[in-house]
Write a structure and sequence with these properties.
Layout (H helix, E strand, L loop, with lengths): L1 E5 L6 H12 L3 E3 H9 L4 H12 L5 H12 L8 E4 L5 H13 L6 E6 L2 H9 L1 E4 L5 E3 L18 E2 L6 H16 L1 H8 L3 E5 L4 H14 L1
Parallel strand pairs: 1-3, 1-4, 2-3, 4-8
Antiparallel strand pairs: 5-6, 5-7
């Protein structure tokens, strides 16, 4: 099974991708995870990524596509994978399609999670991340426990500097609408896009996604 998750920041792509990956027993490949693994390798790609990350530069469409290609060719992806955060642009989507054709791989479904902007703002501005295990909490819906993380017991949290309403609306959501939103139309025309309402609980949404995946 080969799946792509689409949706704006705060839609819950990562959460749902992790649940589905565990259910299907295939890797969940977030952009961050891909870059972390590939940058640790002592080859041309790894060295290039280390240099770019060290300088605080953006990874080009060409390089991120090459990195993703190398990642999905690893042994653990032989029976499928879930892409979360890639592709982000039409260029990346078309590059990915070329790569998959050469490997005789077909994307089974593209899952688009829709969430109202007001809910997205609350999810982003209220996000709290466990410093140790990266479990996500939210001060509005599911506050970080006073006695520590329920998974690892850590007492401290991380709050991203761009997890605020102003930065979200002016930068992250704007960038999504300009670059990533056109992918919805792109995959819809290929008849493999499935939309889900992401405003409910993570468990409810996961059940609907899994039910749909099983029917494909």
């Amino acid at each position: 099974m080969h799946v792509i998750f689409l949706g704006p920041p705060g839609a819950g792509k990562g959460t749902q991708a992790k649940i589905l990956a565990k259910k299907l027993n295939i890797p969940h490949l977030s952009t961050g995870e891909i870059l972390r693994i590939m940058s640790s390798k002592n080859n041309y790609i790894g060295k290039s990524l280390k240099d770019i990350i060290k300088k605080g530069l953006l990874v080009s469409d060409e390089l991120i596509t090459t990195v993703v290609r190398e990642r999905i060719l690893l042994e653990d992806c032989q029976h499928g994978f879930i892409l979360d955060g890639f592709p982000r642009t039409l260029i990346q989507a078309k590059n990915l399609e070329d790569i998959l054709k050469k490997q005789n791989i077909k994307i089974n479904t593209v899952i688009k999670i829709d969430v109202n902007e007001n809910i997205l703002i609350q999810r982003i501005s209220g996000r709290q991340v466990c410093k140790k295990c990266n479990k996500i909490y939210n001060k509005y819906f599911n506050p970080f426990p006073k006695n520590g993380c329920i998974d690892c017991g850590e007492k401290n949290i991380i709050i991203r500097s761009d997890d605020n309403e102003n930065a979200f609306k002016k930068v992250r959501l704007k960038k999504y609408n300009e670059e990533t939103k056109p992918l919805v139309e792109y995959y819809d025309k290929k008849n493999n896009l499935v939309r889900f309402d992401g405003s409910g609980s993570a468990t409810e949404i996961a059940e609907k996604i899994i039910k749909t995946i099983k029917s494909i």
